[in-house]
Amino acid sequence: MTKAAEPRAAADQVAVFFTRDEIQALAKQGRPRDGFPSAEELALQQDAWKRILKAESVDRNAQAKVAGK
User: Fold this and answer.
1) What are the b/e assignments for 9-26, b being 16+ CB within 10 Å?
2) What digits encode the pLDDT tens for the residues 17-31?
């Protein structure tokens, strides 16, 4: 990436913010304490993962646009 393209790429990057409940649900995903997560925790995990994947997609699209593809 050229020096001229760097500021544009930085402006196109996407930040993903999570609520405290989503963070706790994601943390439990790796190590559930009482066997299985609740339906609410599963829904929070699913929503959080969807936002992560969408942000990655937007970031890849922005990088491709900057690269001129």
Assistant:
1) eeeeeeeeeeeeebeebb
2) 777 887 777 777 666
| Rg, C-alpha atoms of the chain | 17
The residue assigned the tokens 């993903």 is: 16
Structure-block tokens of residue 47: 């929503």
Q: Is the pTM of this model over 0.70?
A: no
Domain ranges for the chain, please list them. 5-67
Surface-to-core class of residue 63, CB atoms within 10 Å of its CB (0-12 exposed, 13-18 middle, 19+ buried) = middle
Spatial CA neighbour of 38 closest among 53, 50, 21 = 21
